[in-house]
Amino acid sequence: MKLLSLNCHSWQEKNQLEKIKYLEKTILEENFQIVALQEVSKKIGDETMDFYRLLSKELKGYHGFWDFSHIGYSIYEEGLCIFSKYPIIARESFYVSKDTNTNNWKSRKIVKVTLEVNGNKVDIYSCHMGWWNDEEEPFKEQCDRLLEKIKSSENISILMGDFNNDGNVSGEGYDYLLSKGLYDTYTLAKNSDEGITVLGEIDGWENSFERKRMDLILSTKPLEVEYSKVIFNGKNKKIISDHFGVNIQIRLK
């Protein structure tokens, strides 16, 4: 089973329509069974600038779910989505931030679907989390709310997305996630690359020029992972966002 996670940075990109078409083409060519996307926005009052709608029109054979998290840049309804080739048994969305005011760009909603894959029920989460040291919305508190939600399910859970914490930094959000019993598919993979998904300074990471492994695919069980590769990084497919994507292949027994 092939999975893709990408923060799309939608409508902040030059040549955005071309990049949507390239994303569509890649999803279909690579035959990703599950796709989790973040920063999937639509311009308020303009149906022609609906990233999810434009993408879903071309992804024939996929089941999709999008929900709105907060207003971004004053003019966009920013959300998250999941596309699946497997039928969606159940779907829900929920906030992990303290603040659920959609006018606060720091409010954070998670999108979740439940799928049946080879006789296994699997919960897929598309995640866009806050920052470790944020005084208003600390990552640790958001993470705890997310983990409480996961504990309520007996299914295998796979968390995909932009966690806004660098996997190469010790003692912060990444280590906190692992300390709570989550497994990183990158470290489980039989084959992997550097894993870098952000090259330097981006929104929310001003004056931070380190190469970061910020986009992750985590699981509640130690899955059999054939490979973990970065995609849309200029080496493996063209760059289409300020984040690169993560592509893994797993085997579910």
Secondary structure blueprint with pairings:
Layout: E1 2-7, H1 16-30, E2 34-43, H2 51-58, E3 63-72, E4 76-84, E5 88-95, E6 109-117, E7 120-128, H3 139-151, E8 156-162, H4 173-179, E9 183-184, H5 185-188, E10 191-192, E11 215-219, E12 224-231, E13 245-251
Parallel strand pairs: 1-2, 7-8, 10-12
Antiparallel strand pairs: 1-13, 2-4, 3-4, 5-6, 6-7, 8-11, 9-11, 12-13
Helix pairs in contact: 1-2
User: What is the number of helical segments per DSSP (H or I, 4+ residues)?
Assistant: 5
Shape: globular
Instruction: Give the terminus-to-terminus CA distance.
Output: 11 Å
Please indicate the count of domains.
Answer: 1
Gyration radius over CA? 17 Å
The CATH topology annotation reads as: Deoxyribonuclease I, Chain A
Order of helices and strands: EHEHEEEEEHEHEHEEEE
Please tell me about this protein's structure.
The protein has 253 residues and is an alpha+beta fold. It has one domain (2-251): Endonuclease/exonuclease/phosphatase (Deoxyribonuclease I, Chain A, 4-Layer Sandwich), CATH 3.60.10. Helices cover 19% and strands 36% of the residues. The chain contains 5 helices and 13 strands. The chain has helices at residues 16-30, 51-58, 139-151, 173-179, 185-188, and strands spanning 2-7, 34-43, 63-72, 76-84, 88-95, 109-117, 120-128, 156-162, 183-184, 191-192, 215-219, 224-231, 245-251. A 7-stranded mixed β-sheet has the order 3-4-2-1-13-12-10. A 6-stranded mixed β-sheet has the order 5-6-7-8-11-9. α1 (16-30) packs parallel to α2. The radius of gyration is 17 Å and the shape is globular. The model has no long low-confidence stretch (mean pLDDT 95).
